[in-house]
Amino acid sequence: MKRILIKGCSILTMCIKEQPFIGDILIEDERIAKITPSIEEAADRVLNGGGMVAMPGLINAHNHASMSLLRAFSDDLRLMDWLDKKMLPAEARMTKEDIYFGTMLGTAEMIASGTTAFADMYVHMDAVAQAVVDSGMRASLTRGLVFLEDDGGRRMTEALDLIDNWTGAGDGRITTMLGPHAPYTCPPQPLAEVIDLARKRRIPVHIHLAETREEIEKIRMKYNQTPTEYLHEAGLFQDNHVLLAHAVHLTGTDVKLLRGMKGGVSHNPVSNLKLGCGIAPVTDMIANGVTVGMGTDGAGSATTLDMFAEIKAATWMQKLEHGNPTVLPAEQVLRMATIESAKLLGIEKEVGTLEEGKRADLILLDLNKPHLQPVHNLHALVAYSATGADVDTTIVNGQILMHRRQLLTMSWEEIRRESAERAARLVEGL
């Protein structure tokens, strides 16, 4: 049995109504064995947590990690120009190897900024899965399904192969979902088939919803419904666990249709802001009992995968939208980035809070910095002042992936070199 003991850290468990306290954390193999004010036991490795905050690793509930290769390539453009003139042509050039190294670049950034698990939707997902295994992260993986042309069932075959071959891989760190891309790319018949398959095999569903005004108009013109009404009528929310990405443009009726759904919404505020998409009705959804977690979207749109940037953007946007500084307070927005996102991935019984018996997915933040002193309210300090660069140590499943800012499961020089060469080829002439 491998034992890691973290001594003398400030602990944010992110459990409801639990206040921060100074204590020790004992990890045995992949799980948290003890969390108490003092542990005096032998361990294979002892980490000095003095001046550190231990908290659950952040969980990125919606991402396209391999798009890290397209970071800062096509910024400050209107959405459709960004997509049609830049993103889609570059993505069409991506090989399986490009996607592997793009995902490794994304996992390096996430590990270095305190994210321990993420939900990803893309193509060549076996390459993404291999990157997850190699990096040591935890992930829920989905092969995106677009049904605008007949591909002979290839996409669906790839989606099921991912589920059959990779679920439980990486010592249980990989889970999988079915991924109909969005209402406007999934006509009624194939959408119904995916929903039926998900229900019969009890497979969660990951889908984009109402990200843009253009999507709203497309669905209105074609079906005289909102995208949410379209999915509701198709039966998506009956018995299925569903991860909805974005949900920016929802009516009051739409929000009510989501009441009682299994799963919930990944709010991706930085991407929504940067592309001028709008502000999601986060507080309305929460008030109606909808679980709202948080994600980054891909670095092609958000530019950063730093979840601490999302935490700030999420709370600031809601305070501004409502003209009310009490909306979405620090502790609540931190829960969105941890346990609420864990619920979206269906892994909340294993991760998302620091509790004895749960998987050891946690991070240590270094408070010995000017912008993190003095310490009055720890939740507020972490939510409003911390950045990903303040993460000292990242642990997933009991394995230390980064310590003292040094990545331990990958060669940063190899990833940097491969990423630069591949990214240059992808965007040449575009």
Give a structural overview.
- The chain is an alpha/beta fold and 430 residues long.
- It has a domain at 58-139 and 183-345: Alpha-Beta Barrel (TIM Barrel).
- It has 16 helices and 17 strands.
- It has helices at 79-92, 96-112, 125-135, 154-166, 169-172, 188-201, 213-223, 227-233, 252-257, 269-274, 282-287, 299-302, 307-322, 330-345, 378-384, 412-427; strands at 3-11, 21-28, 31-36, 45-48, 52-56, 58-63, 115-122, 138-145, 174-180, 205-209, 241-246, 262-267, 291-294, 362-366, 391-396, 399-403, 406-407.
- Strands 1, 2, 3, 4, 5, 14, 15, 16 and 17 form a 9-stranded mixed beta sheet that branches.
- The N and C termini lie far apart (53 Å).
- The mean pLDDT is 97.
In short:
The protein is α/β, with parallel strands linked by helices. It has helices at 79-92, 96-112, 125-135, 154-166, 169-172, 188-201, 213-223, 227-233, 252-257, 269-274, 282-287, 299-302, 307-322, 330-345, 378-384, 412-427; strands at residues 3-11, 21-28, 31-36, 45-48, 52-56, 58-63, 115-122, 138-145, 174-180, 205-209, 241-246, 262-267, 291-294, 362-366, 391-396, 399-403, 406-407. It starts with a strand and ends with a helix.
Present the secondary structure layout.
Blueprint: E1 3-11, E2 21-28, E3 31-36, E4 45-48, E5 52-56, E6 58-63, H1 79-92, H2 96-112, E7 115-122, H3 125-135, E8 138-145, H4 154-166, H5 169-172, E9 174-180, H6 188-201, E10 205-209, H7 213-223, H8 227-233, E11 241-246, H9 252-257, E12 262-267, H10 269-274, H11 282-287, E13 291-294, H12 299-302, H13 307-322, H14 330-345, E14 362-366, H15 378-384, E15 391-396, E16 399-403, E17 406-407, H16 412-427
Parallel strand pairs: 1-4, 1-5, 6-7, 7-8, 8-9, 10-11, 11-12, 12-13
Antiparallel strand pairs: 1-2, 2-3, 5-14, 14-15, 15-16, 16-17
Helix pairs in contact: 2-3, 2-16, 13-14, 14-15
